[in-house]
Amino acid sequence: MADKLTADYMVIGAGAMGMAFTDVLLSESNANIIMVDKYHQPGGHWNIAYPYVRLHQPSAFYGVNSKTLGSDVIDSSGWNEGLYELATNSEVCAYFDQVMQQQFLPSGRVRYFPMSEYLGEGRFKSRISGEEHTVDAGKIVDATYMHVTVPAMREPPYAVDPGVHCEAPNALPEVSAEYNDFVVVGAGKTGMDACLFLLKNGLPAERIRWVMPRDSWLLDRANIQPGKLFASSIGRGFARQNEAMAAATSIDDLFARVEAAGQLLRFDTNIKPTMYRCATVTQSELQALRSIPNIVRKGRVSHISAQTITLKQGTEPTSLNTMHVDCTADGLERRPVEPVFAGSHITLQSVRTCQQVFSAAFIGHIEATHTDETLKNELCTPVPHPDSDIDFLRTSLANARNAMRWAQDAQLQQWLYQARLDGFSSGDAPPDLSDPDVLAQMAPRAELAAKANANLEQLLDSV
Ligand SMILES: Cc1cc2nc3c(=O)[nH]c(=O)nc-3n(C[C@H](O)[C@H](O)[C@H](O)COP(=O)(O)OP(=O)(O)OC[C@H]3O[C@@H](n4cnc5c(N)ncnc54)[C@H](O)[C@@H]3O)c2cc1C
Which of the residues 18, 123, 125, 410 has the least number of beta carbons within 10 Å of its own beta carbon? Predict the structure, then answer.
């Protein structure tokens, strides 16, 4: 017999999004919540990711709204020197565990069921005891919808013959000096992390071959820094980006201008990228990556045998003394847009581009403070993950539209200005939009943003 439980909310998934949503609901409502997750501790994919992964953005605006992650230190060495610290995956997992053990559970309003698989229709089953529960929940919150995959969760999506060494990037800290060379398959952020791990640990760049099916536009981490220290340089950067977007006469011209404004980077300035997935690097990381001389641009791998790597547009020699590092998992899968609020169902999605935890906290705030479903969905319009170069334009526009909508709501502005997860919040009071002097001061920026958006719309119409 299934045991029957009741709760105001049942949150499926205690990854970063489920945790960030629940945290705001605890702070801003009296709701009681059941959280169910198939892993043994909160933190989702961070429990499975390669051990040397770090946040790609500063710790300062990751995690849950109510608790600081890290110690707001600026790194004084390494490839992130001069920028805010980046938590490691063990730090992220420990942080989420503390949030659960020290905040959620002591509140008496959260019941947490780890090692439990959600079966649908409010039912879940323990992966250890097999015991089944049914939850009579006011609302069901799907915090699994973003489908984050890291390579260690599945087999490589290409055939690998017996005897060939092909591993997830998790295996790299265990390898010995027995390999002649390394082939890193995939040029997203995980591929970059694997290459940087090898270089950092003294492997000569010539012994790496990097399979790069698509070149990517990259974000400069120096432009993604929180707080007052970086506020004016970031503000100037955004203004330069809007000027570039407003003045661009074609899509190629837009990328040239945004790159010249220092808002986008690329691995090889002679190659036009066709990918944009919010991957973030520092200038020093990029310089290190550019030292890798052997870049394989022959499309995706389909088969690795003892002597040959078969790719879509050709082959590459390989050997049984080569370590192939599979970095092809889709960490930021592009998912179909669902309404965030649909009756008794909430589907957590990004409402600011590539800012999932901010988005989950924002949705939690809207759920706790609004009742009109149409308005709630208007405020929480999803911004799907980007994939192609053109998606840089699409997500920039969708982001800007959401920001403009939020700016019309004084209470929401107040919340955003105080929200730790809003990387660009200052913690100060928001500008008083009823003050004509304030409005006059903001007018040139608003006009520029409007021109940039109008031009983006026009350029996208031509695609
Ligand atoms: C290597 C890497 C680095 C990243 N760095 C950053 C960064 O610096 N900043 C940033 O904002 N984002 C970053 N991201 C994006 C990242 O995806 C999000 O920040 C966030 O961690 C996503 O969390 P999530 O809760 O959506 O997903 P997940 O972490 O996948 O959590 C989903 C949870 O749902 C559970 N679940 C799924 N199905 C079921 C089921 N049927 N029953 C029970 N439980 C279930 C899973 O066990 C899991 O715990 C990174 C992603 C990767 C892959």
Answer: 410
Total-model pTM: 0.96
pLDDT tens for 419-456 read 999 987 767 778 887 888 888 888 888 899 999 999 99
What is the tens place of the pLDDT at every residue in 287-334? 999 999 999 999 999 999 999 999 999 999 999 999 999 999 887 888
Mean pLDDT calculated for residue range 200-218: 96
**143 Cα distance to chain centroid:** 14
Candidate from 36, 37, 354 with most ligand 1 atoms within 8 A of CB, to mutate: 37
Ligand 1 site residues (CB inside 6 A) read 12-18, 36-39, 44-45, 49, 53, 55-57, 62, 117-118, 143-144, 146, 148, 150, 190, 331, 355-357
Spatial contact of 267 and 290, defined as CB atoms under 8 Å apart = yes
pLDDT digits (tens, 9 = 90+) for 58-76: 999 999 999 999 999 999 9
Q: How far is the CA of 330 from the centre of ligand 1 (A)?
A: 12
Query: Residue 202 Cα, ligand 1 centroid: separation in angstroms?
Result: 31
| Rounded distance between C-alpha atoms, residue 21 and residue 236, angstroms | 32
Contacts of 17 (CB under 8 A, 6+ apart): 44, 143, 146, 348, 356, 357, 359, 360
Q: What is the pLDDT of residue 236?
A: 86
Q: What separation in Å is there between the alpha carbon of 46 and the centre of ligand 1? A: 7
Count of other CB atoms within 10 angstroms of residue 174: 8
